[in-house]
Specification:
The protein has about 450 residues and is of the alpha/beta class. About 35% of the residues lie in helices and about 25% in strands. The chain contains 14 helices and 16 strands. Strands 3-2-1-4-5-6 form a six-stranded parallel sheet, sandwiched between helices. Strands 8-10-9-7-11-12 form a six-stranded mixed sheet. α2 runs parallel beside α12, α4 runs parallel beside α5 and α7 packs across α8. The structure holds NADPH dihydro-nicotinamide-adenine-dinucleotide phosphate and L-homoserine.
């Protein structure tokens, strides 16, 4: 019987190249995870890269902070890393401006490859930074910046390219998904669950970026760029977060057979003759049908659906935030650099990335919730305003009849354009029978 070859150990590999020298700025959730992974997986990673991966310098803000890993001496100035003898600078500080941007720019100017998890920086300055890197034949890699451990950046840049992409959509923020899941499953309050997400290292330094939809917007801008060959564009994107979603909305969603998820969606739109019009990018909470794959992405996990033309539709899911999954993505970028794999940052030469042409995609059905006084005529008034805007109602629920007190009226509409629904709700909100701004959530097509 033929014997299977025994897989060689790292010591059996001829290490033809010297070690890849790595400098890491930021030793928080992600940076700490990268240091630990490089240490614990040292030999296996060297075997995969064909050379050792060696940390030569690290930097963090507070040299007295207790950390659950050991590193040599810590530099307080991250910019010192850009003039160290490192081959690669790993930026894990965060923020779209300030020291993170300065470090990345200086590292590239000084001929260092860069790996970063900083979606805010790349969504804002990605095209220019990619041009800087490509002009010097350097790598600027960012697998960790979108969807944590899911290799969606590499997938869009290198794998799903043959037939083009029609749409990419997904749950891209672990913090929001954790909050929505916990509110539904355990009935806990928003603020309480957000605190827990922060303690687990999921949230951004400024958590309003998570719950306001900004972090999802940053990630969507990067996915859109990779999918459609456009420069990352945050300006042509409608962005809405989850802070107005109540436990009541989550309960109603469940009754209708849906779950509420914060989705980022980027879609190529076409005219009636099939000619491309532009890209529709939006971030907003959506009602997702309960049995679909995205509806079942729970906790801090992320999920991404890519519609790749004739190749079909693909679904990816996995851990989207936190130490180990994010470190996994950063380390995979380092191994690619160690191997010498080179390609354009966004999958096309950066100078050729087009400006995004915005185009709205079609109408959708809507979940509407009105917090009203239970007085005669209120329902007729709402129905009248919707009818004025040509929005037709498919179904309705009213709860807690207690004459004179406030109640929730929930409606599902037929397919209607967003601006028509917004016009109707603005008119409804002006009524003295309505107690709060009405809530509108699109029903996501399967
Ligand atoms: P943390 O806040 O946990 O860590 C930030 C690190 O940067 C800390 O080590 C901090 O030093 C250091 N730092 C902050 N400001 C400065 C400064 N002015 N000068 C020098 N060092 C500084 O952040 P995360 O690890 O969570 O996030 C890092 C990056 O990764 C961000 O861009 C984030 O968006 C991104 N990211 C995070 C994910 C996550 O799950 N947490 C997932 C994917 C991406 P000190 O330790 O001394 O305070
Ligand atoms: N704050 C981000 C999230 C980290 O919650 O998804 C991962 O990018």
């Amino acid at each position: 019987m033929a014997r299977l070859p025994i897989w060689p150990t790292q010591n059996d590999f001829p290490m033809t190249k010297g070690a890849l020298k790595i400098a890491i700025a930021g030793l928080g959730t992600v940076g700490g995870g990268v240091v630990k992974t490089l240490a614990s997986r040292h030999d296996a990673l060297a075997a995969q890269a064909g050379r050792k991966l060696e940390i030569v310098a690290v930097s963090a803000r507070d040299s007295n902070k207790k950390r659950d890993f050991s590193v040599g001496s810590l530099l307080s100035d991250p910019l010192a890393l850009a003039s160290s003898d490192a081959d690669v600078v790993v930026e894990l500080i965060g923020g779209e401006e300030g020291i993170a941007r300065k470090l990345v720019e200086t590292a590239l100017q000084n001929g260092k490859h860069v790996v970063t998890a900083n979606k805010a920086l790349l969504a804002r300055h990605g095209k220019r930074l990619a041009e800087m890197a490509e002009a010097k034949n350097l790598q600027l890699k960012f697998e960790a910046a979108v969807a944590g451990g899911i290799p969606i950046v590499t997938t869009l840049r290198e794998a799903l390219i043959a037939h083009g992409v029609d749409a990419v959509k997904g749950i891209l923020n672990g913090t929001c998904n954790y909050i929505l899941t916990e509110m539904e499953v355990s009935g806990r309050g928003f603020a309480d669950v957000l605190k827990e997400a922060q303690a687990k290292g999921y949230a951004e330094a400024d958590p309003t970026l998570d719950i306001g939809g900004g972090d999802t917007a940053h990630k969507l801008a990067l996915l859109s760029s990779l999918a459609f060959g456009t420069a990352p564009d945050l300006l042509n994107m409608r962005v809405e977060g989850i802070s107005h979603i109540t436990a009541e909305d989550i309960g109603f969603a469940s009754e209708f057979g849906f779950r509420i998820k914060l989705l980022g969606v980027a879609r190529q739109t076409y005219d009636e003759n099939g000619a491309a019009l532009g890209i529709d990018q939006r971030v907003r909470p959506a009602m997702v049908r309960a049995r679909t794959p995205l509806a079942n992405v729970d906790g801090a996990a992320n999920g991404v659906v890519v519609d790749a033309g004739e190749a079909g539709s693909f679904f990816f899911s996995g851990r989207g935030a936190g130490e180990a999954p994010t470190a996994s993505a950063v380390v995979s970028d380092l191994v690619e650099i160690a191997r010498g794999s080179f390609g354009p940052v966004f999958g096309r030469p950066a100078a050729g990335l087009k400006n995004l042409v915005p185009a709205e995609s079609g109408a959708s059905a809507w979940y509407l919730r009105f917090d009203v006084l239970d007085v005669p005529g209120v329902l007729a008034e709402i129905a009248g305003r919707l009818s004025d805007a040509n929005v037709s109602i498919e179904s309705m629920i009213q709860r807690g009849r207690a004459p004179g007190e406030h109640v929730s009226i929930v409606m599902i509409t037929h397919e209607s354009p967003q601006d028509a629904v917004e016009r109707a709700l603005k008119a409804v909100a002006a009524s003295d029978k309505v107690r709060a701004r009405p809530c509108m959530i699109p029903m996501e097509a399967a």
